Amino acid sequence: MSVAGRWLLYSLLSFLLITLSVVLLTVLLVMGINRDPIHHVAGKPNKQALKQIPSEFLDIYQEAGAKYGIPWNVLAAIHKRETNFGKTTRPGDPERKNMISSKGAIGPFQFLPSTWEAYGVDGNGDGKADPWDVEDAAHAAARYLRDHGGQEDLEKALWHYNHASWYVEDVLRIAEGYLDQTENPTFAAAFPFQWPLPGTGPESISSGFGYRIHPILKTRRFHDGIDIPAATGKPVIAATGGVVRFAGKLGGYGNTVILETVDGIELLYGHLSSIEVRRGEHVKGGQIIGAVGSTGFSTGPHLHFTVRKNRMPVDPLKFFQP
After folding, report:
1. What DSSP state is assigned to residue 268?
2. Which residues pair with 228 in a beta bridge?
3. DSSP letter at 222?
4. What three-state secondary structure class fits 20?
5. Is the N end or the C end of the chain the one with fewer CB atoms within 10 Å?
6. CA 317 → CA 120, 130, 192, distances in Å?
């Protein structure tokens, strides 16, 4: 083969290798983004959901939820709570006045015009964002919740949606009632967890799971986990084995570690003073993952511990043996 021929062959091989590397890098980046647990959506709909939710809406909720990282069942619950899936508009109401609130909120998801102007979405791709269209409104609601921190603190985002604690409680109750709780047969295999702060126990909890008067805001707010006071620097351990899906600063949680178990359960450790693991690392139950601190929105050194199943917070005490 001539010198020119060899150079031509080498150039072709180099081009192919570079192209292949770019493709592989793109695939890895996309896989990395999609593996972020914060973007997981809820599980399968149960019989109640299939019976109560109009069939044409379920795909809309799931598509919008997947796009914005918000559980589909929360979007369904908002639609149910706001306008009963649009059924507040009855025959003989051509102007749809029954979907216009006393404060001027409009459409199936009850957006104020000013809010719609900021968050409206053309969800159905017809070239316009219409607050009266269910698909557009569902995507806009998911966008609104995401932009108000719904991927990290769903309760806080819901409070912003309506500014009422009772509303948050109602939506979460409806949303939980739409999930198939039997879809994960290995759920019980996660029991029992190790207590995340050795040397302490449930009797050390200063603030439990559920509604409470927020220690800083002084208003009734939903607490999505438990608070365990301890001295700054006290080691925090993994309650069970899993993969680190997040390690870093996370809004009001401060320095945070999120583990995902083989069952898809998420464990969040917040307000840490230091983090001893990195994203993607596989950890064993009992392994030190960080230390107690008071970073983020905190009144003093403690561990905030949250357990999420299907992206919904559940009482962590259910995961520990009495």
Report:
1. E
2. 303
3. E
4. helix
5. C
6. 40, 44, 10
The pLDDT tens digits for 274-306 are 999 999 999 999 999 999 999 998 989 999 999
Which residues touch 87 (CB under 8 Å, ≥6 apart)?
Answer: none
Residue 270 pairs in a beta bridge with 304
Note if the pTM is more than 0.70. Answer: no
Do the domain assignments include residue 260? yes
Please tell me the number of Cα atoms within 13 Å of 165 on its side-chain side. 12
101 and 88 Cβ atoms separated by less than 8 Å: no
Q: How far is CA 145 from CA 68, 69, 83, 155, 162, in A?
A: 8, 9, 18, 10, 11
**Tokens read off for 258:** 């999120």
Residue whose C-alpha is closest to residue 159's, from 74, 257, 270, 271: 74
Q: Does 42 map to a domain?
A: no
Q: What are phi and psi of 121, to 5 degrees?
A: -135, 140
27 plus 104 within the same structural domain = no
Report CA 306 to chain centroid distance, whole Å.
12
Query: For a pLDDT cut of 90, what percent of the chain falls above it?
Result: 52
Q: Could you list the residue range(s) of the whole structural domain that residue 78 is in?
A: 47-176
Q: Is the domain of 219 the same as that of 247? A: yes
Sequence-distant (≥ 6) Cβ neighbours of residue 223 within 8 angstroms: 207, 208, 209, 210, 211, 212
Average pLDDT over residues 200-219: 82
Q: How far apart are CA 81 and CA 83, in angstroms?
A: 6
Phi-psi region of 311 (alpha: psi -120 to 50; beta: other; left: phi over 0): left
158, 175 contact by CB (below 8 A) = no
Cα separation, 241 vs 289, whole angstroms: 11
Task: State how far the Cα of 164 lies from the Cα of 191, in Å rounded to an integer.
Answer: 35
Q: Output the six-digit token pair for 143.
A: 């966008």
288-300 b/e (C-beta count within 10 Å ≥ 16 → b): ebbbbbbbbbbee
